[in-house]
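Data availability (excerpt). The following record was deposited with the supplementary files.
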Amino acid sequence: MCWWKRYGPSSAPFAETERDKPMTRLGIIGLGDMGGAIAEGVLTGQWDDDVEVVGYDISAEAMDRFADLGGVPAASVGELARQVDLVAVVVIDDAQVRQVCSGGDGAIAGAAESGALVAVHSTVLPATVIELAAEADEAGVALIDAPVTGGTPSARSRDLVVFCGGDEAHTEQGRPHFERYGGMVVNVGPLGSALRAKVARNLISYAEMAVAHEAISLAAAADVDLKAFADIVSYSDRNIGPHMGVFTRPIVYPPPAFGGSFTRIAHKDLGGALALGEELGVDLPITALVDQHIDAAFGE
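Predicted structure:
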């Protein structure tokens, strides 16, 4: 049986007294890896208040998993938005965000009836959210960018970072729900600012993954015990801190000169890695780029 036939409309529209209740109905559009993990964290968490989670996904399997957790499936995006006070959009890309937000049965149209805030958690272009926010504003709806970071484990443990762009008042409006799955909720500036911050944050993660792959390739070619290598990295990061402690100090841009011999030591160490890679026949293109540009990181 098709899921929309199985579930049908999840409920009648809110009565006025229900709509006045303080942030007790959370809607999640997109119940895949991240949206499903957010739903699981909220539905399995222990809360003093009575929170109902309404969800929508085009996947019947995702909807079934959500229902098994105790979520309330909606038959459409519009139906979901008409009965919640926060619409969390957790789909994959710009096209999907536009598809679920716009249209006669989209999130914006539904939120115009319920008064819900629409929060786009998807990592998309800032321009997409800015355009949709203008469309929402014409309908009397607030729509903000609110990307999340921390991955699905943090979503399940309700410890994501939720960073919002737009009016501070809209961040505060969504905060009661955001704090049900976020350990940190912060407004970073005007509409679109949060997505710009997310792009920069993702750059760190992907660059770390790429250079870690190079390091593992080099260690493996040098017959280093990889379990011991992983233990060394994990333990030393506890003391040095990831990113060499850059984010544990006040950030100034451009960075001030570190002074001392940091740059010289960095080139020595990177040169050693490049020399070992050449000796073992391991290509280290990212290491070579870092060696070219590391001076700027040390303010030189």
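Summary of structural features: The two ends are 65 Å apart (CA to CA).
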